[in-house]
Design goal:
It is built from 10 helices and 11 strands. The protein is of the alpha/beta class.
Length: about 325
């Protein structure tokens, strides 16, 4: 999926690459080809635990599909899901951990920077296929890109007769006058347009379908499932490049069901789990070799933009302040 990626973080890649190689070596000793989800003793231990608590910042309706697919393979692990917006989820983890009452067995978040702030709360973990993942997307050996999402442009076909074909097209005057909707900067929005602002991708995608806005930069997975279900939209990956957002998922040190947690993440990060999320949910993948591609994604044409994580951390606060000033936005 990210075959054209060029390393921009050589030092980080080297350090995390060595860590991934080490854990991959341990996983290899278990025979990942025979046990893509982990050794028999892990699966048995997970069966004995019987459940896990899953904290996620992703959309609940999407994660329910992931849980259902996981349970088709492992019906003996009941998953209790707790969904909260990004900042609230981190606050909840910090508060519960400080009180010695962190209930989560798995924490899944879209912002790797925020997860690094609480890295000391997590245990060492690596999936059996750790060596199959691109080192550039790893910010810690404790966190793994269970989900990898890509940005796209969507438009309402009933309203837009001359659709944009690129990111730069969104700056054309003909798309002014409130036609474009945009997620606010603190939720991942850009500064390329002067749009109608929305708190997140979910209400923006709904507004696009209702015709309240006619064009929107959106994470592909948010809008693709709506198109699949009959919404009057078209989606494309802009030729200049597709910014991606690898998630960070980990297992807290205090997990009450650590084996079930490992099995859940092992399945998510396996080729089977990644294929499900690509085909059914419109995800991309951080695997070196993609097992599938979402509709409309041509790996010979699409260029992937992977954030330089060190620059991201350094520049994020200043960029958000600039974004807020440009749009007069305050939380």
């Amino acid at each position: 999926m990210i075959d054209k990626l060029t390393s921009r973080r050589a030092m980080m890649k080297g350090a995390l690459g060595l860590a991934a190689a080490a854990v991959a070596g341990r996983a290899g000793a278990q025979g990942p080809a025979k046990n893509p989800f982990g050794p028999p003793e892990l699966i048995e231990a997970a069966k004995q635990e019987g459940s896990l608590v899953y904290y996620t910042a992703n959309f609940a309706e999407v994660e329910r599909q992931v849980v259902a697919a996981f349970n088709k393979r492992f019906p003996f692990v009941k998953v209790e899901m707790v969904r909260a917006p990004g900042g609230q989820l981190i606050t909840r983890v910090k508060t519960e951990a400080a009180a010695g009452k962190l209930a989560a067995d798995v924490v899944d978040h879209s912002d790797r920077g925020l997860m690094l702030e609480i890295e000391n709360q997590f245990a060492d973990y690596a999936p059996p296929n750790a060596g199959d993942y691109i080192a550039d997307v790893l910010v810690s050996p404790k966190f793994w890109p269970r989900a990898t999402l890509g940005w796209s442009i969507a438009y309402n076909v009933e309203l837009v007769k001359n659709p944009p074909n690129s990111w730069m097209d969104l700056t054309k005057p003909e798309y002014g006058n409130g036609q474009i909707g945009q997620v606010i900067g603190p939720s991942g929005g850009t500064t390329w347009t002067r749009p109608v602002l929305f708190p997140s991708g979910a209400p923006l995608s709904d507004s696009l379908i209702r015709g309240e806005v006619s064009i929107a930069p959106l994470l592909y997975n948010i809008i693709w499932t709506k198109k699949r279900d009959g919404a009057p939209v078209e989606i494309f990956f802009p030729p200049e490049g597709v910014p991606i957002n690898p998630y960070a998922s980990g297992i807290p040190k205090t997990a009450a069901h650590p084996n079930a947690a490992k099995l859940f993440l092992n399945w998510n990060l396996s080729e089977e789990g990644q294929t499900f999320m690509i085909k059914e949910l419109g995800h991309l993948t951080s695997l070196k070799q993609a097992p599938a591609y979402p509709e409309g994604y041509d790996p010979k044409v699409v260029k992937v933009w992977v954030p330089n994580f060190e620059q991201y951390k350094k520049l994020h606060a200043a960029w958000m302040e600039d974004w807020n000033k440009i749009y007069g936005y305050r939380q």
